[in-house]
Specification:
Strand 1, helix 2 and strand 2 form a beta-alpha-beta unit. By secondary structure, the protein is of the alpha/beta class. The chain contains 12 helices and 10 strands. The chain has 2 domains: 163 residues, Bordetella uptake gene, domain 1 (D-Maltodextrin-Binding Protein, domain 2); 116 residues, D-Maltodextrin-Binding Protein, domain 2. The protein has a 5-stranded mixed sheet with strand order 2-1-3-10-4, with helices on both faces. It has a 5-stranded mixed sheet with strand order 7-6-8-5-9. Helix 2 packs across helix 9 and helix 2 crosses helix 10. It is globular. InterPro entries: BUG, Bug_dom1.
Length: 329
């Protein structure tokens, strides 16, 4: 791999070594006085949805008001992000962001919002391994099988993801780059419909987050091929990493974070940041995360540390999107 190594190495450590930064306190208000809506850009049943619902359950107790998950799929999560960016900045409409949003800032030329100026970071929520899975009907059992098929039948092997510009899409592109293969990308509006077609034999592979794949793996509806992380996952310890198979540079975990509309009062942002740090230390939440393949940050984090991660990711994915000429469908 001959590009962005420094950035890749830095980002692979997210959640454990980002520096702490102070968050100035403001006089507390009565926030929250009513239910809070957590908006996500994907369909129910996918990996992001699962994380949102775990988080909402524990934040409801911490905040003393219900946290409601609202699914707004469309335009690879841009519909949801724009909705929150245009919402009243009072802390009652929040956005569960993913790595995909940092990709879209470069990939989509005519977005009606700017991730860097219309949304503000609240805090990092979790990281999660990515995984390559295939249907039980395919002959694919190892990474080498994918490479052999893709080289024998260029642009014929299909790789599904949860949307154009999603982490799964980017990892599919990077896989092709690092293996010298050519595959056909198939974008879905979330991972759940992608799994329907994978199980039905209409696509060959799916690149995505482990929590979305885990129920299907456990039900033996799909077959895991490799984990795209530095280490094997405790959830599927018998599945090798991609690097174990000889393909290097594909060990980027996916991250999830909380954002709010720009202009959110500092004391509200601090209340939210304090609350997510508190629930992330809850052993019951950590157990729920582990069971579904998520990893909570190793230490409390601030809006500044999460904002630094977002800015670094924008820089990284700008290079990759341009190199691979990735454009919206």
């Amino acid at each position: 791999m001959n590009f962005c190594k420094r950035e890749l190495a830095a980002l692979s450590l997210v959640g454990g070594v980002l520096p702490m930064a102070g968050l100035a306190a403001e006089p507390p208000g009565a926030y929250p006085e009513r239910p809070v809506t957590l908006v996500i850009g994907f369909t129910p049943g996918g990996g992001t949805d699962g994380l949102a619902r775990i988080l909402a359950r524990y934040l409801t107790d911490e905040l003393g008001q219900r946290v409601l998950v609202e699914n707004r799929p469309g335009a690879a999560s841009n519909v949801a992000a724009e909705h929150v960016a245009r919402a009243t900045p009072d802390g009652y409409t929040l956005y569960l962001s993913t790595r995909s949003n940092t990709v879209h800032k470069t990939m989509y030329e005519h977005l009606k919002f700017d991730l860097s100026t219309d949304l503000v970071p609240i805090g990092l929520l979790a990281t999660v391994p990515n995984v390559i899975v295939t249907g039980e009907r395919t002959p694919i059992k190892h990474v080498r099988d994918i490479v052999e098929l893709a080289k024998t039948y260029p642009s014929t092997v299909t790789c599904a993801s949860s949307g154009v510009g999603s982490t799964g899409h980017l990892l599919c592109e990077l896989f092709q780059r690092e293996t010298g293969t050519s595959m056909l990308h198939v974008a879905y509006r979330g991972s759940a419909p992608g799994f329907v077609d994978l199980i039905g034999g209409r696509v060959d592979l799916l690149f995505g987050v482990l929590p979305a794949a885990l129920p299907q793996i456990q039900a033996k509806a799909v077959r895991p091929v490799a984990v795209m992380s530095r280490q094997r996952s405790l959830a599927i310890p018998d599945v090798p990493t991609v690097e174990e198979t000889g393909v290097l540079g594909l060990n980027l975990d996916t991250w999830f974070g909380l954002m709010a509309p720009a202009g959110t009062p500092p004391h509200v942002a601090k209340r939210l940041n304090d609350s997510i740090n508190a629930v992330l230390l809850n052993p019951a939440l950590q157990q729920a995360f582990t069971e579904q393949g998520y990893v909570a940050p190793l230490q409390p984090n601030t809006p500044d540390t999460f904002g630094f991660l977002v800015s670094q990711e924008i820089r990284l994915w700008t290079k990759i999107v341009r190199e691979r000429n990735i454009k919206p469908s």
